[in-house]
Amino acid sequence: MTGRFTGVSKRTRLVIIGSLVVSVALASLYWWKAQAKTTRYVTQVLKRGEISSAVQATGTINPMTTVPVGSFVSGTVQYIFADYNSRVREG
Hints:
Elements: H1 10-37
């Protein structure tokens, strides 16, 4: 056999090639993670103009979450002049 690897065993060649493959893989992974951390912004000059599109839709709007609201007051209730869901006004 002629060439650079004359006199080198097959196992040594496999170790060298494997080391090179692992090194390239690790370097590529390091470069890929470094690229993912950089934040890129796209800017443009502000222009005023007319609104060119509008969205119309029908349906029901539902909240993503609901929160119960109430108060805790200590004491005795003497009179209740309103029922559940009845309209009330000041005075």
